[in-house]
Amino acid sequence: MKDEVLKALSACIEPELHKDIVTLGMVQNLVVEAGVVSFDYVLTTPACPLKGMMQAEAELAVKKVAGVKDVKIKMTASVKKDTRLESILPPGIKNLIAVAAGKGGVGKSTVAANLAVSLALEGARVGLLDADIYGPNQPQMMGIKGYEPLVDAGNKIDPAVAHGVKVMSMGFLMDPDAAVIWRGPMLHGAISQFLKDVKWGELDYLVLDLPPGTGDVQLTLCQTVPIAGSIIVTTPQSIALSDVRKAVAMFKKLNVPILGAVENMSGFVCPHCSKESKIFSEGSAKTLKSSYGIELLGAIPLDPKVCDASETGTPIVLSAPDSIPAKAFRETARKVAAAVSVRNAVHKPLEIKLVKA
Fold first, then answer.
1. pTM, 2 dp
2. Distances from the Cα of 303 to the Cα of 297, 300, 352, angstroms
3. Phi, psi for residue 302 in degrees, rounded to 5
4. How confident is the model over 62-81, as pLDDT tens digits?
5. Which of 145, 157, 248, 333 is buried most deeply by CB count within 10 Å?
6. Tens of pLDDT along 151-192?
7. CA angle 180-181-184, nearest 5°?
């Protein structure tokens, strides 16, 4: 009966990779006993946005096989590694995801924190590197302001752990009231140490919270390590595109794939009636699609709860999981994970393109 079951499952097409799940090796440990079929359904990410639909489709396909009395499917996941990282970073890190913005004040760090925690809530192993050297906000946003990293005999650094996410930030090492006045070589050294000397362990995704703009830190990262993809955070106004264009141009010049954009503050959620109102002019997402071919991964409304969560150190996906912004962040994280999986599966990795800073 195994052959008949596999034939039935081969009719199930992975909706984003467009191949059948048997050919893709997603059906494992298949056992048929007394009419009961059991197998592991190995997804490319635990944050798969179509997990429920795919499980139901496979179950229905197997039940149509003659003699099958019951179907037991164990949904699991194995995130594919970006092979370009093999000789550059510690072996446990599988994918780097950069969160960027053309300018400050668009909520980039808030998006990075909620994205990292959302991926962890889906079951992924996640790290968050606060690469915003000049304005490290993640210690406060993740509720770990007082953390003091320990360094072992091999000069390896223990990251903080908050909300299921491993976190490293310059904010752990500096006086919060002191200005960071560093040039390129010092920035390069700090970023390199955070990537290579922190004990990240096994990570499916390391989220990089980049500084705003297109400066030395962004160039250093993109020139030093291969990034699976970048996410550009913007706001709804069409005028915001003037800054987004610079970030898009930088990533394209450095051969860093753009997974998509996140439109933050897409509307205002009233704290009294919970209705959402548009308070900015619109059009940026449509223009990003038409002019650059960049998909909109998510639209996050402005809600006072988001601001409160950032202040108190518990991202809104945890502090108010049923709120509109939290649900938007969770859905955005699933789309990001899916985009990384598709890129790893079907796109030939581009080499890092060195550019003088």
1. 0.89
2. 19, 9, 39
3. -80, 125
4. 999 999 999 999 999 999 99
5. 333
6. 888 889 999 999 999 999 988 877 666 555 555 556 667 778
7. 110
Q: Which amino acid would we find at residue 56?
A: A
The token pair that represents 139 in the structure block: 């210690």
Distance CA 140, CA 312 (A): 7
Q: Where are the alpha helices (DSSP H) in the chain?
A: 2-9, 51-63, 108-121, 138-141, 184-196, 216-224, 241-253, 284-287, 304-312, 316-319, 324-346
The Cα–Cα gap between 223 and 277 comes to 41
User: Three-state secondary structure along 217-283?
Assistant: HHHHHHHHCCCCEEEEEECCCHHHHHHHHHHHHHHHHCCCCEEEEEEEEEEEECCCCCCEECCCCCC
Question: Whole-angstrom Cα distance, residue 144 to residue 159?
Answer: 11
8-state DSSP, 164? T
Residue with tokens 């509109």: 324
Burial 153-168 (b: 16+ CB within 10 A, else e): eeeebebbebbebbbb
CA distances from 240 to 271, 276, 298, 301 (A): 26, 21, 17, 16
Q: What domains are defined for the chain?
A: 2-77 (3.30.300.130), 83-346 (3.40.50.300)
Question: Using an 8 Å Cβ cutoff, are 153 and 197 in contact?
Answer: no
Q: Could you say which DSSP state residue 48 is in?
A: -
**Band of the pLDDT at 216, cuts 50, 70, 90?**
confident
Token pair listed for 14: 């992975």
Place of tokens 């009966």: 1
β-pairing, 205-209 vs 165-169, is: unpaired
Question: Which residue reads 């800073």 in tokens?
Answer: 357
What mean pLDDT is predicted for residues 102-116? 91
